[in-house]
Amino acid sequence: MKKSPILFFLVLCLCHIVFAQPARHYVELPVHGKLFDTPHKYHRVDTAKYNDIPAAVKRLYTNSAGLFVTFKSSAPEIYAKWCVTSRKVGLNMTSIVNKGLDVYIRNAEGQWQYASSKGTTKACDEVKLAEYLGEEEKEFLVYLPMYDETKSLQIGVPDGYTIDPLPNPFKKEIVVYGSSIVHGASAGRSGMAYPAILSRRTGFNFVNFGVSGNARIEKEMAHMFADLNPDVYILDCVPNSSPEQVASRTAYFVEYLRKKHPNTPIIMIPSVVRELSFFNQRWKARNRQQNEQWKAEYDKLIAKGVKNLYYLDDDYLLGHDHEGTTDGTHPNDLGFMRMADKIGPFVLEVMKKHHIF
Known about the structure:
Blueprint lengths: L3 H17 L3 E4 L27 H6 L7 E6 L4 E6 L11 H5 L1 E6 L5 E7 L5 E7 L7 E6 L8 E7 L5 E2 L5 E8 L1 H4 L10 H9 L1 E7 L8 H8 L5 E5 L6 H18 L5 E3 L12 H23 L5 E3 L21 H21 L4
Parallel strand pairs: 10-11, 10-12, 12-13, 13-14
Antiparallel strand pairs: 1-8, 2-7, 2-9, 3-6, 3-8, 4-5, 4-7
Helix pairs in contact: 5-9, 6-7, 7-8
């Protein structure tokens, strides 16, 4: 009998917690940031259709890097529940960029402004994404997990408020093919990968086809990308390619795209200079050989008469103060901002030349 008052008190506390939770409802929204139709909503590529691409690449294209949802709501708080895989968070990543969500709100000047982000180490989670927002209608953009496979995602608001899906706010189609640096390692959150930064800055759709540890200029990838009809191709695929692979594969890759898309601009970007290479002599030699060979292949293609091919002649994309990486290779947020500062104006110049806008 002595336990009864304690049990009664605990029951009251639990009831208070349960009933204090505001009633809310969830919706599933259309996904933007992809160019291929896929059987799985949150995959970037139909890996069954493109079965001949490398196995590791197929797995990485199940990651939801660069994908996002957009909506408007006047709700004072926004919720999310989502599921990913049970894989562990990467050692050079945050749980936010690996498995979490990253929220932007369009501000009074019409720009996408960072609002909040939530990470997780769980396979499934439910969180309050943003709160105390007032009741003025706002436009939201939520980036999906960058380095995991999103299994499901729902956005919620308190009962009495609505969520209205919005179309993709970014125009045109710019394919960005590359390594983990395009993919987004080691940004602090998904919105800080350089394709995402450039989309928000320019209003153009820089589509993330980064594949960590890969992007070795395989011919199968050229075949896959040729099935698209983008406004621009960006090839940032040197970091994981050996100098020998650059020499043997670049011409076929570029010429195949050119054959299928005679007038589409193709922009070749050299590897960033890895910070490791300033003291590690092996990396220094490899980095130099990669970029020298990449530039040599560009020069050969131009000499052969390949048109509408461009080269961003700047491999110090991370700056000169040696503070732009997380681990000597992968950019941090500062490094990604610097990459966007250099790549963005060059791409816009090419687009203007071709009257793409």
